[in-house]
Amino acid sequence: MVQLLTPEGKFAPSASAEEFLPYFEKLTDADYRKFYTDMVTVRRYDTEATNLQRQGQLALWVPSHGQEGAQVGSAYATKDQDHIFPAYREHAIAHIRGVDLIQLIRQFKGITHGGWNPFDPKHKNFHIYTLVIGSHALHSTGYAMGINLDGATNTGNPDTDEAVIVYFGDGATSQGDVSEAFVFAASYQTPQVFFVQNNHWAISVPVSVQARVPLYLRGTGFGIPGTQLDGNDVFASYAVTAKHLDDARNGRGPSLIEAHTYRIGAHTSSDDPTKYRTDEELQDWIKKDPIARLETYLRASGADDKFFAAVHEEAADFASDIRRRTLELTAPGPESMFESVYSDPHPVMDEQRAWLAAYDASFEEEA
Amino acid sequence: MTTQNLPLAKAINLGLREAMLADPKVVLMGEDIGTLGGVFRVTEGLKTEFGEHRVMDTPLAESGIVGSAIGLAMRGYRPVVEIQFDGFIFPAFDQITTQLAKLTFRHEGALSMPVVIRVPYGGHIGAVEHHQESPEAYFAHTAGLRLVSPSNPHDAYWMIQEAIASNDPVMFFEPKSRYWPKGDVDTKASGYPLHASRVVREGTDVTIVGHGAMVSMILQAADVAANEGTSVEVIDLRSLSPIDYAPILASVAKTGRLVVAQEAPGFVSLGSEIAATVHEKSFYLLESPVLRVSGFDTPFPPAKQEAVYLPDADRILDAVDRAMSY
């Protein structure tokens, strides 16, 4: 397992980390601080969203607590031209790619099924969430096939050569669509990285039920090489993902990353993990927290209390801004239901929109 | 010379070729569609002409084909997917109904899904299980999809091009028992929009609506009925979703009687939908109840029983007689 930063916050690269170290070495102290700031900000946001759900503001929340290391490191390893296909827990990646996190709140409040336009340059190709487990793996592979058809990768220019990264969880690896995505990716040698966040639990089912071999080996039979990393080590996540994406954009085809991490919270706000996990296991993983270990590392390399206080204050401001804007959100009018079902005009949508308007108007006349 | 006499399969082939010549973003995907030209040879010669990047022999995985076509459409391509046989579409059912159909809505209009799914469908070819079915109702029930089915070579040539030009996903149901009979194709003008139904035979006593291979069966029945003194008006549905009701309602206003014929099982079928709608909209104009002629509500039987399962001209004429008896 590739690890650069131990759970105790000590920089001690594992032997397997060697080939990835050149990528880490390009990072500066400012980058480390950016990683830390984003991890803290999104964790604070996640807590706020959980609270908002408990207070009846959201129908559901999907907590990301614990997985910030895997997400922040890999997100910073992407380039602006890359396309990112998330599952539905990738809040930190959304934040780093420029999606206003109120959009995720809008989805879980029941205002939209999506929330943002991935093709708007300000969202830097961060695609919308997918709730059918694993189905987006095929979309990412098809998209990467298109990159090949366009000749938009493997030209030798790392600033423009495109690659794709798709995120899913340990449970999704059992889906047929993920296996079919592996088949197509290998057949067409797509420039893409499959990134599995193995948080060890698919709701209540442990990863041992999904796989009898480590997940990073799942690609081997498909001809897709894999790397296993400590997902709570933001440096490992960054360095390994950067190399895999570079390999993808340099014509080496698809690859797989398994990031070992843990969902500290529930699967969703409707879940009760105490029914299936032991407190001992939870406490064990809390000791491996991605934020705490980076904090130790930063303090040892000179960051002072002032820096940490500023980060936490900024995160608190971010969260309270999200709270304020959540309370201001309004539901769309009923007529929007008929918009965007089709791209081209459709007589049934026109007819039913008109019918609903007339039906609603009939009550106004009575009143 | 703008009229050619062609089999329906060849008409689709020419239509695909025209679409590929007109737009370099049109790519074909499917099992055995490249080197072999498809098991029905609908894509014959296209890989040679356009190359393996535009006519892709894919791995044997229907969900993978449709799911990766979705990704290509996100990239700006216009994929045309072939599902080899009707009964093999179900591994792709999830990608078609939860993804392809809903991605434009999910993106609030920011993303179009110009994907065409070609589905050879229907019976009368004496084949093994899963090779003779009519699964169109499953997809007609899903918002976000458009469904069409040509009954003749002229429509096939034009409708495949119009389906590819659509910015929405179109399921293109090809009546495989009609792949081989020839018909005149006017390559200069389509004559009808993609989603228009069409009166193909005028009559005064009873209207019969059908689609795909059933249209030629209905026309045979209409000839027999004419000899027996009953004048049948025949409407080729062409578009299964949305349904163009104007010609159907106009015809029913004239005849007062409607029979809907289809190869698919009758329970929760397109025929059921048309019957319900015509009853709602034309109740006072009807001289008799709308009658359905359908496959039985059994699985598609072994080939030796298909002649009994599939509605033939006699079963259609029986419905005409019942309609006329009111």
Most extensive interface, residues per chain? A-B, 40 and 44 residues
How many separate domains of chain A? 2
Task: Output the number of helix runs of chain A.
Answer: 13
Helix content of chain B: 25-40%
Radius of gyration of chain A: 22 Å
Please give the domain count of chain B.
Answer: 2
What would you say this structure looks like, in words?
- The complex is a heterodimer of chains A (367) and B (326).
- By secondary structure, chain A is an alpha/beta fold.
- Chain A has 2 domains: 15-328, Thiamin diphosphate (ThDP)-binding fold, Pyr/PP domains (Rossmann fold, 3-Layer(aba) Sandwich); 335-366.
- Chain A is built from 13 helices and 7 strands.
- Chain A has helices at residues 21-24, 29-54, 68-77, 91-96, 102-109, 135-150, 176-187, 207-210, 234-249, 279-286, 290-300, 305-328, 347-366; strands at residues 83-85, 164-169, 192-198, 201-202, 205-206, 226-230, 255-260.
- Chain A has a 5-stranded parallel β-sheet with strand order 1-2-3-7-6, sandwiched between helices.
- Chain A is globular, with a radius of gyration of 22 Å.
- The mean pLDDT of chain A is 97.
- Chain B is an alpha/beta fold.
- Chain B folds into 2 domains: 3-186, Rossmann fold; 198-324, Rossmann fold (3-Layer(aba) Sandwich).
- Chain B has 12 helices and 14 strands.
- Chain B has helices spanning 8-22, 46-50, 62-74, 93-100, 103-106, 136-140, 153-165, 214-227, 246-255, 270-282, 306-309, 313-324, and strands at residues 3-7, 26-30, 55-57, 78-82, 116-121, 146-148, 170-175, 182-186, 198-201, 206-210, 232-236, 239-241, 258-265, 291-295.
- In chain B, strand 2 (26-30), helix 2 (46-50) and strand 3 form a beta-alpha-beta unit.
- Chain B is globular, with a radius of gyration of 19 Å.
- Classes of the chains: A alpha/beta (367), B alpha/beta (326).
SSE topology:
The complex is a heterodimer of chains A (367) and B (326).
Chain A: H1 21-24, H2 29-54, H3 68-77, E1 83-85, H4 91-96, H5 102-109, H6 135-150, E2 164-169, H7 176-187, E3 192-198, E4 201-202, E5 205-206, H8 207-210, E6 226-230, H9 234-249, E7 255-260, H10 279-286, H11 290-300, H12 305-328, H13 347-366
Parallel strand pairs in A: 1-2, 2-3, 3-7, 6-7
Antiparallel strand pairs in A: 4-5
Chain B: E1 3-7, H1 8-22, E2 26-30, H2 46-50, E3 55-57, H3 62-74, E4 78-82, H4 93-100, H5 103-106, E5 116-121, H6 136-140, E6 146-148, H7 153-165, E7 170-175, E8 182-186, E9 198-201, E10 206-210, H8 214-227, E11 232-236, E12 239-241, H9 246-255, E13 258-265, H10 270-282, E14 291-295, H11 306-309, H12 313-324
Helix pairs in contact in B: 1-7, 3-4, 8-12
